[in-house]
Amino acid sequence: MKKREFWFLVGSQCLYGEDVLRTVDARAAEMTAAMNAGGRLPYTLVYKGTVKSNEEVTGVIKEANYDGQCTGVITWCHTFSPSKMWINGLSLLQKPYCHLATQYHREIPNEEIDMDFMNLNQAAHGDREHGFIAARLRIPRKVIAGHWQDADVQRRLGDWMRAAVGVAVSREMKVMRFGDNMREVAVTEGDKVGVQAKLGWQVNTWAVGDLVKEMDAVTESEIDGLMAAYTAAYDIATDNIAAIRYQAREEIAIERMLRRERCMAFTNTFEDLYGMEQLPGLASQHLMSKGYGFGGEGDWKVSAMTAVMKAMGRGENGASGFMEDYTYHLADDNRCSLGAHMLEVCPCLAADRPRIETHPLGIGMNRRDPARLVFEGRAGSAIVVSLIDMGGRLRLLCQDVECIKPIMDMPNLPVARVMWRPAPDLLTGIECWITAGGAHHTVLSYDVSAEQMKDFANMMGIEFVHITADTTVEALEEKLMLADLAWKLR
Ligand code: MN
């Protein structure tokens, strides 16, 4: 994991004299230390001083832009900080930005309060001046209000930090493509130049033949090593050990190429496996469990989104995985959606220890039976996320879902499966999703929240559409129509 930190910048001015500024400085340091000790921030907060002039603001923001570990800046105004001094600096800011609207004291001290207290403790005043300038400059930012000691404030700050990590990971994202998109599929296409300009993703192709060459160079003892890792993590429920060893060979070769090119995500397609005996199944699943993004059928957008969302989760490899809506259960009393994929579902979604099985692929060219992990997804609240290219802009679509224990065994279904009920209910949820143009491929996450995805979209300057328990088709249609107009004006 890369070392990351967030910078805490406190605004003030020279008007108050040295004594007040010393107090501001000491308290900001105390607050930083306490928030770091609170155990709710996933990354270190670094107090970078009290800024009191245009030169100081501009200087520290240039430094933040340049610093490789600084993943975002968090500002707060203990006193009043006239915000014209922030214009030049904020105009240059390239890192995610959060405005923490807090104050040192929790309660107004009835007996103690006088005008000296008011001058020192006027965040309610200073934070409004500070907020105006970011609004005036149209700078995307997160505003979090509350007392800095409150668990909920620290938790929200931590959640925002993870969204900012998504931004950092996105800006460095490299996707390795083996083959193109599945023939004739529309939603997995997109403007790679536009996406790189907007999100930073470098999406390029490598020859399947080069992967096969890399596979041929993998040794039996290397395969033995990976087989031990498979055995430690999964139950082997097949006699076809050769098929598992073949997947290990594929995984080692793919990872070698990913590492060599510093790629965090990859795609392939069952239509382009020339020289390979099996579509990578277990191989892709185990790579995903390590944090790599994956998209089937050449879907580079979902592959990169999977890697970004994994990195936004716990330990920068959270429970987020590539998913596909397959089929519905439309019985009146128990409607739900069944998600799976041809093979490649990440074991981070599993309720129990996955089994390695081998079955025929049943689609595409005649390949040897690929080994894959089979399991049920776990129950719990989650989101599904889809990034689509609307032509001239990207739309990030997010839907709240409730994952459930699959309502039947499906003993002949040879792939991992997850069942859920989308918000607001299955049928309205489907209507909303289709109305908004969401793909069949998604990232399903138990770990990243819709608010974090909204923050990510905000920071990246892309459209965000959220389907919740309160969404109606009619309201959504109107929102999409207005968004279309608004985005044309940008
Ligand atoms: Mn698919």
What is the element layout, followed by pairings?
Layout: E1 5-11, H1 18-37, E2 44-51, H2 54-66, E3 70-77, H3 84-92, E4 97-101, H4 115-120, H5 123-136, E5 142-145, H6 151-171, E6 174-178, H7 192-199, E7 202-206, H8 208-216, H9 220-233, E8 235-236, H10 241-260, E9 265-267, H11 282-289, E10 293-295, H12 300-312, E11 320-329, E12 336-340, E13 355-358, E14 371-374, E15 380-389, E16 394-404, E17 417-422, H13 426-436, E18 441-445, H14 450-460, E19 463-467, H15 473-489
Helix pairs in contact: 2-3, 6-12, 6-14, 8-10, 9-10, 10-11, 13-15
This protein binds manganese (II) ion (MN).
Give the structure's gist in a few sentences.
The protein has 490 residues and is α/β, with parallel strands linked by helices. The protein is 40% helix and 22% strand.
Mean pLDDT across all amino acids: 96
Largest sheet: 6 strands, antiparallel, barrel
Number of helical segments with 4 or more residues: 15
Question: Could you estimate the helical fraction of the residues in percent?
Answer: 25-40%
Q: How many independent structural domains?
A: 2
What is the topology, as strand order, of the major beta sheet?
A: 11-12-17-16-15-18
Protein structure class: alpha/beta
How much strand? 15-25%
Q: Which small molecules are bound?
A: manganese (II) ion
Distance between the termini: 36 Å
Estimated radius of gyration: 25 Å
Uncertain segments are: none
Report what the structure shows:
This protein is of the alpha/beta class and 490 residues long. The protein folds into 2 domains: 167 residues, Rossmann fold (3-Layer(aba) Sandwich), CATH 3.40.50; 315 residues, no CATH class. It is 40% helix and 22% strand. The protein contains 15 helices and 19 strands. The strands form 4 sheets. The protein has a 6-stranded antiparallel β-barrel with strand order 11-12-17-16-15-18. β3, α3 and β4 form a beta-alpha-beta unit. α6 packs across α14. The protein is elongated and about 80 Å long. The two termini are 36 Å apart. It binds manganese (II) ion.
